[in-house]
């Protein structure tokens, strides 16, 4: 929180003290930074509040049958403008069949949005590609998000699910965000009696996969 607040305070003071001496281009640039840093504070506060909610016993209040295909399409629809702006191709899977799980729909959408946001940050800037997968394994649904970024070193694959952890890369430069997205994602998935894992090789992108129990009649399970 301190970093964006410092930027906002410094640039606001410059605008206040030297407004007339700043040309229009400089004023616009400073105001854009102030807006961006304000958005960053808002995201950080929201994610910290999410952590507190996840720690409470009543975190999942809206438990109901949820169709994973609808969750996936809603998340992708909300991200579509960003994909277009970054020239990223997002490929969706075949969605035939029953993909119903029990859970909190809004939180499951948040999980997919977090994974897509993470993939978007690390995609190849020249030819960004994100592939979403959906398959069945026994009585579980496996939903995956793959990017074509620089990949994750083996020593960092467990650490990325910890709070305030961000990866640095030569391609992406200084990391952006709060380092809370994957931590929150993991907690939500675990609250749905699921699990999350990552596969990656340096230079070959990363695949994040969540495993959730399907909601099926007992006769089908047996």
Brief overview:
It contains 6 helices and 7 strands; from the N terminus they run H-H-E-H-E-E-H-E-E-H-E-E-H. With 222 residues, it is α+β, with helices and mostly antiparallel strands.
Strand order, biggest sheet? Answer: 2-4-5-7-6
Distance between the termini: 52 Å
Order of secondary-structure elements: HHEHEEHEEHEEH
Number of helices: 6
Over all CA atoms, what is the radius of gyration?
20 Å
Which structural class is indicated by helix and strand composition?
A: alpha+beta
Structure description:
The strands form 2 sheets. This protein has a 5-stranded mixed beta sheet. A two-stranded antiparallel sheet has the order 1-3. The radius of gyration is 20 Å and the shape is elongated. The protein has 222 residues and is of the alpha+beta class. It has 6 helices and 7 strands. The termini are far apart.
Write the layout of secondary structure elements.
Elements: H1 2-18, H2 24-55, E1 64-67, H3 68-85, E2 89-91, E3 100-103, H4 105-122, E4 129-137, E5 140-147, H5 181-191, E6 195-200, E7 206-213, H6 218-221
Parallel strand pairs: 2-4
Antiparallel strand pairs: 1-3, 4-5, 5-7, 6-7
Helix pairs in contact: 1-2, 2-5, 3-4, 4-5
Name some characteristics of this structure.
alpha+beta, five-stranded mixed sheet, two-stranded antiparallel ribbon, 6 helices, 45% helix, disordered C terminus
